[in-house]
Amino acid sequence: MVYDTLAKLLAQKYDALVFGHDHVGHGRSSGEPRAYVESLNILEQDMAMHIDEVYAKLRTDQEKLPLFVFGHSMGGAVSLLYAIRRNFGPEYPGGLRGGLMLMAPLISLSNSLPARWILGSTETGELAS
C-alpha cells in the first residue's frame, strides 16, 4: 500500500484504527477497465459502503468514535463528495465526529467564492506541523 507508512504513524502515535480503501478499478481492487469509472458518484458510493461497514463494526452506543477521512488527488475529490453528501463535520448527524485530511485534492475552486472562505475554515494541528 502506498500509504502504509502514514497509516502506521497514525495508528501508533494516535492509537487510531486505520484502514485503507482502493477505489473500484484502482490499486489492488478488481474492476475492468482499469482506472475507469462512469462518474465520481460510483467511487463515492463504494468508499461510503466500506467506511460504513468498518465503522458499524466499531461503534457502540456508549462510545462514539471519531472518523477522519484522508484522500489524495482523486481520493481527495471523492472524500470531499462523501463529506458533502453526508453533512460530515465536527458534529455529524447521529453523533459522528471527525474531519477530512485532503492532500492535493483533485478539485477546482470557484471564482465566486472568496479565498477567506477556505482560509477561514482551515485548522492545523499536530499533523500539519
From TrEMBL:
Residues 3-118 form the Serine aminopeptidase S33 domain. InterPro entries: AB_hydrolase_fold, Hydrolase_4, MAG_DAG_Lipase. This is Monoglyceride lipase-like. It comes from Tropilaelaps mercedesae.
